[in-house]
Design a protein that fits this description.
- There is one protein chain.
- The protein has 4 helices and no strands.
Length: 83
């Protein structure tokens, strides 16, 4: 997306995940791909049994997944999935 934003072409076009487009200054999200062509990445979290900072990891997971932050995730292009 950075290369697209810096392009000198008259009408450059690119395709990637919405989160990357939204986060790149100088490009604009124009729409979603048609059904069946869309790209979705499912992010999962886990804490290793022997994690040195398990409590801190859980705090981060809670912050990233909290209902209070749903609006911020949506603004960044993330879709919430039912768990």
């Amino acid at each position: 997306m950075r290369h697209l934003a810096d392009s000198t072409a008259s009408r450059p076009i690119g395709c990637t995940q919405a989160t990357e487009i939204i986060a790149t200054e100088g490009v604009k999200l124009s729409g979603a791909l048609p059904k069946g062509c869309e790209l979705a990445t499912l992010y999962t979290t886990a804490i290793a049994v022997k994690a040195a900072h398990a409590r801190e990891a859980q705090v981060l997971i809670d912050l990233l997944t909290s209902k209070d932050n749903a609006r911020l995730r949506a603004q960044a292009g993330f879709l919430d999935q039912a768990t």
